[in-house]
Amino acid sequence: MDQLIIQGNGPLHGSVRIGGAKNAALPCLAATILTDQAIELNGLPRVNDIRTMGRLLAEMGKDVQMEGTRARIQGDLASYTAPYQLVKTMRASILVLGPALARYGKAEVSLPGGCAIGARPVDLHIRALEKMGAQIKLEHGYLKATCERLTGCDIHFQKVTVTGTENLVMAACLAEGRTVIHNAAREPEVGDLIDMLNRMGAQISGRDTDTLEIQGVNQLKGTSHNIVPDRIETGTYVCAAAITRGHVRIENCRPSHLERFLSIMEETGLPLKREKDVIEVLPHKGLVSRDVQTEPYPGFPTDMQAQFMAVMTQADGRSLISENIFENRFMHVQELVRMGAKIKIEGHNALVKGPTPLSAAEVMATDLRASASLILAALIADGPTTIRRIYHLDRGYDLLDSKLANLGVEVSRVSA
């Protein structure tokens, strides 16, 4: 199992190019099930989750050609089963349920795995699909779904769910009649999927709002689509520059997709320059603490909570960080504390006191964003930090090692 060794060695300098968003690419890959015509996707991130989804589609019968950041996918499904051996590593595999059910009237999907950051139940997906006419039962660890043809209806999500919104949007594209999704997720990744589906011939309105209206059509066609840049990768490099007091130009990004996060970083004293697709992080002389609470988009993203916490260990004062999305998303705290951070947890709140010198240690990554927070801490530690279980990082960060090295980080990957 690979591990990273990072030597803290001063401010980061240089430029970094952001890859495509994993959380946008995965539903777009799943959406290729909705047609047998060729779909060309560009700007795919080079991460394990994308490769896993490609293997899943191929195993289900699609002709999948993937090379670098591009993919061409076409053909019909030969199997309607998403098997456990692939699904166990990636929660996003649940996204094949909606499109397979809508197009073929049947789907079997193993209950998904992925990061252990809390309960992310699929009951919201199931209840909504059942309201559209699906019959779904759980047998031997698999969701087994069938239908004649899904029928449009009004769907009211009790809480905002990104994958639930994406699953239902895809299913509704081929349903009979009109579907309205209330309390829909507004994340940019959802908007990116909607853009692709509409180019395929879907009729979806309400993009970027919490109410989506989908008029079902009989079939969809092929298209070409460029994946939106990854806002969480972008935010992670903002934090890397901030924690090291570096000067970093972040290219091929969408600052507008990180408005809340960037505003809070500026409130801490971090000087930023923003352009249409560039963020330039300038050196600072010290940051001040800032309280945050995670919220659905456009609020402060839960996927930036761990990275922000690492930065707050170096800010002057006390920062109260409230996690309102996932109940187990403070698992990185104990590892940061081992490095010298002063953090106390009370329920879904973490109190961070800074600035605190951090010391090198052997630490263990527990999920994707926790891994990123440990890398940020390692950048300013007083010696070489070894980060174990980095397969989490490889699921979601495009060429992380080389991008950090290009910014001046002493980083090496070794096999344990």
Please give the number of β-strands. 24
Q: Give the oligomer, counting copies of the same chain as homo and different chains as hetero.
A: single chain
Gyration radius, in Å:
21 Å
Which spans have pLDDT < 50 for at least 5 consecutive residues?
113-120
Strand order of the largest sheet: 22-23-1-24
Number of domains: 2
Average pLDDT confidence is: 93
Q: Helical proportion? A: 25-40%
Count helical runs: 14
| Major sheet characteristics | 4 strands, mixed
CATH topology (level 3) name of the largest domain: UDP-n-acetylglucosamine1-carboxyvinyl-transferase, Chain
* SSE class: alpha/beta
Q: What fraction of residues sit in β-strands?
A: 25-35%
Annotated CATH architecture of the largest domain? Alpha-beta prism
What is the straight-line distance between the termini? Answer: 5 Å
Describe the protein.
The chain is an alpha/beta fold. It has 2 domains: 2-19 and 229-415, UDP-n-acetylglucosamine1-carboxyvinyl-transferase, Chain; 22-226, UDP-n-acetylglucosamine1-carboxyvinyl-transferase, Chain. It is built from 14 helices and 24 strands. The strands form 6 sheets. A 4-stranded mixed beta sheet has the order 22-23-1-24. Helix 6 (162-173) links the parallel strand 10 and strand 11. Helix 6 (162-173) packs parallel to helix 7. The model is unreliable at 113-120 (pLDDT under 50).
SSE diagram, text form:
Layout: E1 2-7, E2 13-17, H1 22-31, E3 39-42, H2 48-59, E4 63-67, E5 70-74, E6 81-82, H3 84-87, H4 97-104, E7 106-110, H5 123-131, E8 135-139, E9 142-146, E10 154-156, H6 162-173, E11 178-182, H7 188-199, E12 203-205, E13 211-215, E14 223-226, H8 231-244, E15 247-251, H9 259-267, E16 272-274, E17 278-281, E18 292-293, H10 305-312, E19 317-322, H11 333-338, E20 342-346, E21 349-354, E22 362-364, H12 368-378, E23 384-388, H13 391-396, H14 400-406, E24 410-415
Parallel strand pairs: 2-15, 3-14, 6-7, 10-11, 18-19, 22-23
Antiparallel strand pairs: 1-23, 1-24, 3-5, 4-5, 7-9, 8-9, 11-13, 12-13, 15-17, 16-17, 19-21, 20-21
Helix pairs in contact: 1-2, 1-7, 4-6, 5-6, 6-7, 8-10, 8-12, 10-12
